[in-house]
Specification:
Number of helices: 7
Order of helices and strands: HHHHHEEEHEEEH
Shape: globular
Largest sheet: 6 strands, antiparallel
Distance between the termini: 25 Å
Number of domains: 1
Strand content: 15-25%
Oligomer: single chain
Helix content: 25-40%
CATH architecture: 2-Layer Sandwich
Strand order of the largest sheet: 3-2-1-6-5-4
Number of strands: 6
Radius of gyration: 17 Å
CATH topology: Beta-Lactamase
CATH class: Alpha Beta
Bound molecules: methionine sulfoxide
Length: 199
């Protein structure tokens, strides 16, 4: 009952009862009290929503991702599970992370075909999102100057920066094999999801 209450937060705003700080405090108290994510949710419990709008799919997935991350502080483990959960729900062509290491983006956990391992600041969509510290949506990758084609099957793309404080520490990159696949709904929810990684 208490656990149910603690998880019944507003997925749309990523708030608990409208209070992000209260929700964060609850989570920290639960971790401090010895709970971990396996107390509440096994990984194989991921519920995939079909035949619904993209927004409904994100709304279903967001609290589940929060459950997967709960009580686990290993970044690579969390990035791997987020990439897997997104791939499972949306079946995008490629979804994964690049992390800033020695002033270069280096390939991190991902789902999909093999990909380029290093991207310089300002290069391609990922390097541009890093440099500008903002989400970039590309409807047609062939029209994006300097796009890095890890696969010719990729047609459109969204890249969302990961922030630790004010600093960009990596990016989430999603590729689709369809043109014009991403919009402001993806921008909104993918930003909510990456914020969970450094909450
Ligand atoms: N297309 C990206 C490179 C990464 S792959 O798509 C996985 C870019 O232009 O930065």
């Amino acid at each position: 009952m208490v656990v149910q209450l603690l998880f019944s937060y507003n997925a749309k705003s990523n708030n608990f009862c409208g209070f992000t700080r209260l929700w964060q405090l609850c989570r920290h108290l639960m971790v401090f009290s010895g709970f971990n994510r396996d107390t509440f949710q096994m990984a194989e419990d991921l519920k995939i929503v079909v035949n619904s709008t993209k927004e409904e799919q994100y709304i279903s997935l967001l609290p589940q991702i929060e459950g997967l991350l709960f009580g686990e502080d290993d970044l690579i483990a969390n990035l791997a599970n987020v990439a897997a959960a997104l791939k499972e729900q949306f079946n995008w062509f490629w979804v994964g992370f690049y992390l800033v290491k020695n002033e270069t983006l280096v390939l991190g956990p991902f789902q999909g075909p093999v990909a380029c391992t290093r991207i310089q600041k300002g290069r391609g969509v990922c390097g541009s999102a890093w440099e500008k510290a903002e989400t970039i949506i590309v409807a047609d990758v062939d029209q994006f100057p300097g796009h890095i084609a890890c696969s010719s099957a990729s047609k459109s793309e969204i890249v969302v920066p990961l922030f630790s404080g004010a600093q960009v520490v990596g990016v989430l990159d999603v590729d689709s094999d369809q043109l014009d696949h991403f919009d402001d709904v993806d921008r909104l929810y993918l930003n909510k999801i990456v914020k969970l990684l450094y909450a």
